[in-house]
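Hey, I was hoping to borrow your eyes for a little while. No rush at all, and the record is pasted right below:
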Amino acid sequence: MVDNYNRYKINSYIVKKHPDNGGQIHYSMYWFKEMKTNYDDIIHIVEVNEMLDYIAYKYYNDERLWWIIAEFNNIKMPLDIYPRQVLRFPSYKRIINEILVK
């Protein structure tokens, strides 16, 4: 077994949106290039009782994008964040242009 396996590898996949007939959005992943830090990255300090899905909703208006924050910060288990932890992750504009493909 590979120690650093992560199925949402941000440097390996690109994500494509697929709306269904009811308006629900689904995502699928495709091979992607490596992402580096950028000047417009978001820096967030975790507060007590915050979870990645809440942080994703706060900055991306979509809690389903929590895995981008996890991958960018090398978080293997989504619940393994703690108060005062500093997270750095791509801006919404950047994930729209470089990760999420319409």
